[in-house]
Design goal:
Largest sheet: 3 strands, antiparallel
Structural class: alpha+beta
Distance between the termini: 15 Å
Strand content: 15-25%
Number of strands: 3
Number of helices: 3
Order of helices and strands: HHEEEH
CATH topology: Metal Transport, Frataxin, Chain A
CATH architecture: 2-Layer Sandwich
Strand order of the largest sheet: 1-2-3
Radius of gyration: 12 Å
CATH superfamily: Hypothetical protein
Number of domains: 1
Length: 83
């Protein structure tokens, strides 16, 4: 299993300690472009699949909320990256 597949499986398991930096790395390897929005809002756009993920950067901690992880999983499933 590749590192990318392992990272996708970690996300899919919905861990309580999933860090923003892990998400940035994962989406970067999936060729998502980062577009800074207003305030803490960040958009991730995948040109080939026309997929858009909009999240708020977590603060003060770097750990994603459970609902944000679910949102990312759903978007990656819709884009065909997760089954």
């Amino acid at each position: 299993m590749s590192t990318l597949q392992k990272d996708l499986q970690r996300l899919k398991s919905q861990p309580k300690d999933y860090h923003w930096s892990e998400l940035m790395s994962l989406l970067g390897r999936l060729n998502y472009e980062v577009k800074q929005g207003e305030g803490s809002r960040v958009k991730f756009y995948h040109k080939e699949t026309n997929s858009l993920i909009t999240l708020h950067r977590p603060h003060p901690q770097d750990i994603l909320k459970h609902y944000a992880i679910k949102q990312v999983i759903q978007a990656l499933q819709n884009a065909g990256f997760l089954l």
